[in-house]
């Protein structure tokens, strides 16, 4: 048997110290609050995930990655803009990493599937998107909707546009064919009744559509007074570009009913943006103290103002942290109770989380794009011309009983 | 016609090198981004349209010479994996160089606006693309059918060993074929810019359609690629006129229907 060297003894000593210290590490890890950011790095919203992550990270860093005196462990997973991948990775993060708080994803259809995981695994889920089902027909205690209700959005867009263009009563709709598109379309038509709108056409396109020429030809043939698009991201950018190429805009106004704002507008040339009207959950010139501070910090860090995606992630994270503060607890059910009915001033202004439906009651923004000559700088895309926060009328509310834990 | 252009380039590479080039979509995207950069730097769309695809052809030349050529001995699977990896590298490089968010680029002033064709209003630039892509397809076909080197290429598709035994440098043939395929992808990408703008995912969107065109026409069959490209484009336009929701799915439905009847594709023999 060989003799132990001084080096071997030192190694064993380090190993023993590490072994003995291990329970302490486990104890400190158990104090961590694990929050999952489910953001897409691949798939249809691959371009959005990284900027969602920026916003969420900024909100956590503002608090020094701590809440209630405990460290926050922020983990992210790529949901791939697919329900199967997103639900599987959420479950893995919950079971494997101990995540009890989930924010995301970005697609409404995928979020509905993740919401079911949250209900089954009893973890808190915050989401921002256009489906009304999370705070409607499929509501439950564990999921919350940060974005304005599709009704609030539709009412703000239609009322504000008609106030500026009272004669534009013949509308052609281009609708993304999934949960978000259907929800907003339903309320655009509902609110439109009060203004006597005639919908001369309504075409649905699949998520990820890039060839809009055929849709636009149909729209042009209907000779509408306005074209309204209910789609998002690259779909909206592709549609707006083609509507310009076919000569509809700027003669015919184009309404982007549910836009990401900056992220979409920056992809369109100023000539294409002329006579485009934009509804969005956030625009960076929002006149609120929180927005001003966030926009200043975000612009300094990334060189451009934030759009809806990073802003929603930022505000949802702040809302979750406000829930911890109010609950003075990091237990899921305590935080949920704290968030129900919570009122905060945040980037969009006054927000109140409706306890009965888990729908955020908050302002929605309506902008008009500026002409090239009126732009003061490269990202001076639009002016906010109206905001609206009309909540979903009770007769339309599909969340009759949000249930128990 | 753009589909035909993409399919023709991919079919050329698939036919001669006998590998499905998964980087073809990425080359399409590089062509688009090079056009935007060149047009912005030079200030002239037409010169940029000339330069951008040549840049992609040079890139194709380098890819074949420095990468694929070294893997001929390693076997088919390695070449396939190489083009797949290359597609990922090119896509990520686009994000690193040009950023994750896309943007628009307007057509040259002379091609802005549209023409009233009586039954419909059609953008001038789209008409230009149709004519330009048609001429490119015709020129490629004439090159392959009427020139000696084109005949060697077609012979290479049929029987590489025989061409090699006749004393023709088969490696040079492979390099030229890959560069020509890359050029066609690059010019298709460049022509697309004023219609679809640029974004990092644009190559992936087009790659699927290019493979449909190649499979539909018959693997490695050049005439088949042209016919299939036109068929897909016409089918998509017709269906969208009556049932817009089905305008994407029709691409794959047509492929499935044709392959059920003719598994080797419309013009394929293997």
Number of helices of chain B: 11
| Helix and strand element order of chain B | HHHHEEHHHHHHH
Beta-strand percent range of chain B: under 5%
Here the CATH topology of the domain at 150-281 and 363-395 in chain A equals Rossmann fold
Considering DSSP H and I runs of 4 or more, what fraction of the residues of chain A is helical? 40-55%
Shape of chain B: globular
Describe this protein with a few key phrases.
heterodimer; A: alpha/beta; Rossmann fold; six-stranded mixed β-sheet; 16 strands; 20% strand; B: mainly alpha; two-stranded antiparallel sheet; 73% helix; 2% strand
Please describe what this structure looks like.
The complex is a heterodimer of chains A (405) and B (270). Chain A is of the alpha/beta class. Chain A has a domain at 150-281 and 363-395: Rossmann fold (3-Layer(aba) Sandwich), CATH 3.40.50.2300. Chain A is 42% helix and 20% strand. Chain A is built from 13 helices and 16 strands. In chain A, the strands form 3 sheets. Chain A has a 7-stranded mixed β-sheet, with helices on both faces. The longest helix of chain A is centred in the first third of the chain and has 25 residues, at 6-30. The relative contact order of chain A is 0.13. The model of chain A is unreliable at 12-29 (pLDDT under 50). Chain B has 270 residues and is mostly helical. Chain B has a domain at 2-102 and 119-200. In chain B, 73% of the residues lie in helices and 2% in strands. A two-stranded antiparallel sheet of chain B has the order 1-2. In chain B, helix 2 crosses helix 8 (170-196). Chain B is globular. The two termini of chain B are 25 Å apart. Chains A and B meet through strand 8, helix 7 and helix 8 of A and strand 2, helix 8 and helix 10 of B.
Question: Could you give a quick summary of the protein structure above?
Answer:
The complex is a heterodimer of chains A (405) and B (270). Chain A has 405 residues and is α/β, with parallel strands linked by helices.
């Amino acid at each position: 048997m060989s003799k132990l060297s001084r080096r071997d003894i030192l190694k064993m000593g380090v190993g023993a110290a590490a072994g003995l210290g291990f329970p302490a590490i486990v104890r400190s890890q158990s104090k961590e609050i694990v929050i999952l950011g489910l953001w897409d790095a691949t798939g249809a919203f691959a371009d959005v995930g990284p900027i969602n992550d920026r916003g969420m990270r900024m909100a956590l860093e503002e608090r020094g990655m701590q809440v209630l005196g405990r460290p926050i462990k922020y983990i992210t997973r790529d949901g791939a803009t697919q329900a199967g991948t997103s639900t599987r990775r959420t479950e893995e993060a919950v079971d494997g990493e101990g995540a009890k708080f989930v924010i995301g994803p970005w697609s409404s259809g995928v979020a509905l599937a993740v919401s079911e995981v949250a209900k089954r695994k009893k973890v808190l889920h915050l989401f921002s998107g256009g489906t009304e089902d999370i705070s409607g027909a499929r509501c439950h205690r564990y999921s919350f909707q940060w974005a304005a209700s599709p009704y609030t959005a539709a009412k703000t867009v239609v009322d504000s546009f008609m106030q500026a263009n009272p004669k534009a009563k013949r509308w052609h709709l281009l609708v993304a064919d999934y949960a978000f598109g259907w929800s907003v379309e339903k309320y655009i038509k509902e609110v439109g009744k009060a203004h006597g709108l005639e919908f001369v056409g309504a075409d649905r396109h699949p998520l990820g559509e890039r060839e809009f020429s055929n849709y636009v030809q149909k729209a042009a043939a209907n000779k509408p007074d306005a074209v309204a698009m209910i789609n998002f991201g690259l779909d909206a950018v592709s549609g707006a570009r083609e509507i310009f190429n076919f000569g509809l805009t700027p003669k015919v106004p184009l309404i982007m009913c549910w836009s990401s704002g900056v992220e979409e507008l920056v992809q369109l040339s100023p000539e294409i943006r002329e006579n485009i009207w934009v509804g969005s959950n956030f625009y960076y010139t929002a006149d609120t103290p929180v927005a001003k501070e966030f926009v200043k910090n975000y612009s300094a860090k990334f060189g451009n103002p934030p759009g809806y995606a990073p802003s929603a992630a930022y505000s949802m994270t702040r809302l979750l942290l406000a829930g911890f503060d109010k609950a003075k607890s990091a237990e899921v059910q305590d935080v949920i109770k704290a968030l129900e009915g919570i009122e905060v001033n945040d980037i969009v202004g006054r927000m109140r989380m409706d306890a009965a439906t888990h729908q955020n009651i908050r302002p929605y923004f309506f902008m008009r794009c500026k002409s090239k000559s009126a732009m003061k700088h490269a990202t001076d895309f639009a002016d906010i011309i109206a905001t609206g926060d009309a909540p979903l009328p009770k007769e339309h509310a599909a969340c009759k009983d949000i249930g128990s834990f | 016609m753009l589909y035909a252009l993409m399919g023709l380039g991919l079919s050329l590479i698939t036919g001669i090198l006998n590998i499905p080039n998964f980087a073809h979509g990425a080359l399409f995207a590089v062509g688009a981004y090079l056009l935007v950069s060149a047009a912005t730097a030079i200030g002239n769309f037409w010169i940029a349209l000339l330069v951008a695809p040549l840049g992609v052809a040079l890139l194709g030349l380098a890819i074949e010479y420095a990468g694929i050529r070294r893997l001929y001995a390693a076997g088919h699977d390695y070449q396939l994996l190489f083009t797949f990896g290359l597609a990922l590298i090119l896509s990520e490089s686009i994000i690193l160089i040009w950023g994750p968010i896309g943007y628009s680029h307007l057509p040259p002033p002379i091609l802005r606006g549209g023409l009233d064709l009586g039954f419909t209003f059609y953008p001038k630039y789209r008409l230009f693309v149709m004519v330009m892509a048609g001429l490119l397809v015709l020129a490629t076909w004439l090159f392959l059918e009427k020139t000696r080197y084109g005949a060697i290429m077609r012979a290479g598709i049929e029987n590489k060993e025989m061409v090699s035994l006749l004393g023709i440098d088969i490696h040079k043939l492979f390099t030229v074929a890959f560069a020509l395929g890359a050029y066609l992808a690059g010019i298709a990408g460049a022509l697309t810019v004023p219609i679809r703008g640029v974004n990092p995912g644009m190559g992936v969107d087009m790659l699927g359609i290019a493979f449909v065109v190649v499979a539909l026409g018959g693997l490695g069959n050049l005439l088949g690629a042209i016919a299939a490209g036109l068929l897909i484009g016409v089918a998509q336009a017709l269906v969208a006129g009556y049932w817009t929701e089905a305008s994407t799915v029709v691409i794959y439905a047509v492929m499935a229907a044709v392959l059920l009847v003719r598994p080797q594709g419309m013009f394929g023999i293997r």
